[in-house]
């Protein structure tokens, strides 16, 4: 039986992905092996180098630039494993991307943006890193890809992730203390008179799970019931889901903690359509403090995460990691912003 090497004619290996397929490893492993990274074990590195020599493979100029950190491009990738219908036109993404673009431009870098759906591209992070087109990568959101990000972090230093920090994790994160933010939201709802709470959002993504857990902490302490109302972030579906939740739970809740300001704004619309007054009949708290929070009717009480400071932190830590430093994560404090919805 012939092997992959025997079936592949000399000269057809043109990219790191081609070489990875023959070697039976990820493109990221090939990239690190050819760069002489010690985190690739000796046997695997020697195998990859031998296949490269056999096929006359030479990393292209851009890939060589990657090892010299000379492409002048930072990759920004948004993995949507938990909600494939979510759009990067979401207000949170656009706000963070705007601040990131400003910070990277100030540091002399261009930004390359990718939206990926991991269920159709399981090797999404290794391929991006091994593409030869970027010096480092910022991942926006852990989604359901925590283990994949952890694996890559073991052998790739210039990567920083916007997300939730968990004790003992190996990848470097910048993000808000989401659990504390959830506590602040629940405390405000109860202080405003709510006695039956609901969390509006998907509890599977790490950041949202932490926000819900924080709200549960306060609800348990105060003896107040709280229920999760799973809701997608895609505006095409979220409005319908929120309206259904309000119908199913009519009279059973009087305080809602929305996982994002976008969901909170959609919830305000649904409440208005049902003739439910905010905050008299329903108290509502969001999360993010996006510009929309000041523009809703009534203006939205929300938990503020400092997105501008987060963008500065992401870029600062990434530049330090590009210089070879192994950095700690940065956890930002949330702040309650009281307006008129609760």
TrEMBL record:
Ranges where the HTH lacI-type domain occurs: 14-68
Keywords: DNA-binding, Transcription, Transcription regulation
Pfam family name, one: Peripla_BP_3
DNA-binding recorded as keyword: yes
Organism domain of life: Bacteria
UniProt xrefs under Gene3D superfamilies: 3.40.50.2300, lambda repressor-like DNA-binding domains (1.10.260.40)
GO molecular function terms listed in the Swiss-Prot or TrEMBL record: DNA binding
Protein known as: LacI family DNA-binding transcriptional regulator
Organism field: Erythrobacter fulvus
